[in-house]
Amino acid sequence: MSLDGKVAIVTGSGRGLGLAYAQELARRGASVVVNDVDAQTAADAVAAIQAIGGQAVAVVAPVGPTETAKQLVSAAVESFGRLDILVTNAGVLRDTVLWKMSDDDFDTVINVHLRGTFTTVREAVLHMRAAGEGGRIICIGSPTGQRGNFGQTNYAAAKAGIVGMVRTWALELKRAGITANTVVPVAATAMTATVPYFAAAMQAEAKGEPMPAFFRHDLGFGTADDVAGLIAFLGSDAAAAVTGQVIGVGGDRLQVWTHPEAALTAYHEGGWSYDALVEAWPTQFAGALQSVGERFPELPEEFKTAAS
Questions:
Q1: Catalytic, out of 155, 197, 267, 274
Q2: CA–CA separation, 152 and 137 (whole Å)
Q3: Is 197 a known active-site residue?
Q4: Is 200 among the domain residues?
Q5: What is the pLDDT of residue 27?
Q6: Is 302 part of a structural domain of the chain?
Q7: What pLDDT score was predicted for residue 308?
Q8: Assigned domain for 28 exists
Q9: What CATH number has the domain bearing residue 99?
Q10: CB atoms within 10 A of CB 227
Q11: For the chain, which residues score pLDDT lower than 50?
Q12: InterPro entries from the xrefs (predicted)?
């Protein structure tokens, strides 16, 4: 099933994961609006898509402002006549622990990731609903938004917020035939390149060699191309019944994340007073407490040298 005749916008698609998404959509037949804050990077992305026989135009602007969202939708409609798929991928990082995080660190990440997703999806949906032909909204999440991560208060808040918005949009857009899903990629990026744990995998990637099976299979960690297939699938007619989901992908692994559910429900006649909680907590509730943060298995000995 191809994407022939479809038109997609991919924010933050000048390089890395976003470029991989844009190229895969183009390979499947979609015309693509790419986006980056750097004009040369955006031009290079357009050229890379054209080199594989695809069609693309660029919008050079920062994601976040409503004006950028309008530019992106206008570029799709004016250049290719329609809009069918939106992938919100643009993002920045300002990592530091809570007590060192400035207002600007927080606001910058929230503005690009969370507000940028909101403004771009809102503008796309305005067009899609008016056109009456349905559509596909694909928002990029993160394991940090699902589990938390040390030093990423701003990023965790933004990515968790995106998931909350997507679940709401799945309800609101159902009648219009527009699906909304979150993709959680686990792949080699500029960020993972700085993490010693992934050093052996990153070295293999840099050399053009296959990543070791431990990373691809056990960790579900792979390349940008390993994620791109899911993006194209969710943008296709084959995924018309998939909406409101959080789907993780990386390496050889694909995961459908659960929606939050109560881990334990208990009742106490008259309500849960302080004294009742002190008495009941150790036996009734302590065993149901949930873990936080990502959990990685110990590196096999053969990869520890690379990590040191």
A1: 155
A2: 25
A3: no
A4: no
A5: 97
A6: no
A7: 79
A8: yes
A9: 3.40.50.720
A10: 24
A11: none
A12: KR_dom, NAD(P)-bd_dom_sf, Peroxisomal_Beta-Oxidation, Sc_DH/Rdtase_CS, SDR_fam
